[in-house]
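Hi P.,

Sorry for the delay on this. The queue was packed all week, but I finally got your sequence through. Input first:
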Amino acid sequence: MNFPEGLPIGSDWIPTPSTAPVHFPYDGTLVAQAPIGTVDLARQALENALSVRLEVGRLPSHVRRKVLQGALSAVAEHRDAFVDLLVLETGKPLVDCRVEVERTLLTLETSAEEVARLHGETVPLDLLPSGDGLQGFWVRKPIGVVVGITGFNYPLLLACHKLAPALAAGCPVIIKPAPQTPLATLWLVHLVREALVAAGAPASAVQLVTGGVEVGATLTTDRRIGAVSFTGSAAVGHQIARDAAPTKVLLELGSNSALVVAADADLPAAADAVVRGGYYASGQACISVQRVIVVESVRAAFLAELTPRLDQVVVGDPRDPATRVSALIDARSTTRVRTWIANAITAGATLAHPHLETSTATSTVATSTVATSTAATSTAATPAAVSGGAVIQPTVLLDLPHGQLVWDEEIFGPVIAIRSVPDIAAAFDTVNASRYGLHASVFTSSLEIAFAAIDQLDVGGVVVNEVPGFRSDVMPYGGVKDSGTGREGPRFAIEELTTTRMAIIRPKPLTPKP
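Then the structure:
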């Protein structure tokens, strides 16, 4: 981690009046002090972005591509250091942070390639006699200043999803990272600004401001900006959209992604997918498996496949390459997830995993340094997923009653809820009976069922025989309903951050030379 102190605003780094500690979620140790922005600094960033809007919009394609290629090379050079920093500030397992860096590199590379594909087309205008002799075409123009607000779970990648397409489109961008995880994003922005200057472009084409709600409101409600791109919760996203109107707002919001197990599914593959897709990033991913919907005729066989796999999930220090589940981002999130689990059990859900433990039992949670000192010591049997400890055990709940948050809302933790249904039609109805619609997956051997899922599931993406969290950064990514509006992925985000401009010309007839 090597970047100046303060915040990258304008062409320089501006000191901030205060800082806040960034702690390693696993054991609470201090990672670094992060600069805290203010409303005044947000206003400075806006004025600087607006002042270079035309200049950035007119940058030649080769310059925009060179900037992104330069950023790609710089991040690739420091990929291992980025991985280590992400582990420390997010608490995500090492394996997931490695994936995040690789996807960041792909996003930069693909955005650089898409610069060459940003074009319009000619249009025939003589479909009516009034159009005889007219020439028509349209081009794409930058939408203007972009404000990108990112979540804590994949800070480097989410920031890159905002800034790389914005630069490719010719838009200045201001990034506001999540307060818990600003460090990797600060470093990314520093490297991108160095690439901008090296290519002869203004450093203030990319800026970053940290801070609270008031900073975000200052950035998103300025009517002079072109677009807001937000990744986070549905409640916050909808509030931003209301406050920012009529500015264009792109929302990548939450979900409670479903995985359907059909009667003809490959059950071992489906069980592998549930574990792999439900617990990666400790469940802190908007398209992790949360709801598992199993056709009743294969329920028993599916659970028989799933159960032994659960004990193989390694829980502990995220710096260990074998770890798959570790601490959540902060104590507040941990308490919320535990509360939702406890409420579901009280309402009648069955806790299938982890098993009940007594005061003499040792769960995998207690293997962590933090959890050892906080493990529950009650003599009554207590679910490990509900009792104290810094790390929540991989959890499976069966047959949840209706109205439980664990099923209805995004849990953002290592929790999977399973219900059985009589047939595939009921399974699809259950998937759709949600206010969210980001991704869903279906395990089946039938092409008929696969295409029915693509046709009938009310989600932004349908994945067949893979986890719903399988996301290609070259595909259009986004949701429907309360999961958001707009699409990410370089090609599609670039289109979102440009506007079409129509041109119609009636050429003056050539006058013959005498």
